[in-house]
Amino acid sequence: MAKSKKHTQHLLIFLTVLVDLIGFGIVIPLLPLYAEEFDANYWQLGMLMALHSLMQFIFSPLLGKISDRVGRRPVLILSIAGNVIAYSVLASAGSLWVLFIARFLSGVSSANISTAQAYLADITAREKRAGAMGMIGAAFGLGFTLGPALAGGVLAMTHASWAPQWLSNMGSHAPFWTAALLSVANLIWVSRSLPESLPKEKRQTSKAPMSLLPHHRFREVANLEGPWLLRLLAVYFFNVTAFSMMTMLFTLFTNRRFGFEEQQNAWLFTLIGIIGVIIQGGMIRRIEPKVGAFKLAMVGAIVLTVTLALMPWTSNWTLLIVFLTMVAIGNSLVQPSLNTIASRFADEQSQGTALGLMASAGSLGRVVGPLLSSVLLAVEFGPGFGSVALWVSAGIALIATMLLLSLGGERRASNG
Question: In the chain, what are the domains?
């Protein structure tokens, strides 16, 4: 009975994160053109894209720490309600500054991923957490696959001859209203069905003040045996930075090299999502108990580094598919494995804090990566467009690999 209950809880939290990420996936491919309706210049568009991840960077540890004190369920409910508001504001925006408000709210609300990871850690034995963390990765893959597809389908319906007038009048706003409705359904789902995972007796009782200021962030790292965890956080930051540089420039890369338009690139991004789902949602939980999270992370980091370094020499369709597949495999191995290592390192009272710090490092990487990539795309050197940016991303991935090697393996919490 207890085992069945845990399976149900795993499914519930997976669906909760999935619906959240489908909403996010709806927004990302449409936001640039949507912002141009409000006369956004390229710098403003870049800031608009970065703001969401910046807010995740700031708020992920805070939400994780709050969940350590009050429980996971209240934090998840409030953050999903925040997404309902954020998508509604985005859909009804009448000016550029309103778009910035919507992105701010969505970034704060989407910082709940660390709380969802902590929820899974609460209900999963340490030796089985690789599979649980892989579920979050699979939700990312499915969300980023289904979200853009749903956005395209909704837009197609607004232009269909049979569409009712109210739907046709929505135009480009319709997908954002769809994201808001999905969040409403998610809020009802969680409120009615998701039980609390952290009993009161296991909650953090510290009354130390919680702050968004950097020196408090560093103090949290120090409290969790700082030097080793700091290096793990650095590995995660550099890995995510490298991968986000590639994803930011990839559409421009295929357009300049092969003349690909939106439809072809959508299929390529779907391929990344499918690989993520296969590896993180199924394979990794079977492989990790035999190989170990640290070795999987090393393999993924090496594959990512080598592939990014070779991508500038992409000269045909076959090489493009091979390189893209290898990048997706490398990223799908390394990121959930690093989160597994972090979850095993922290004790029960610090799960939310440790995983929140990991999520925060990843969010910072998703801020730095696209901004750095956008600067380097202007540098013309090498085999073709994007070569310098890809080489720099490979160099950053190499730094992550060397730092990971210096860790020497996993470390366990004293009670583990």
Answer: 2-194+224-407 (1.20.1250.20)
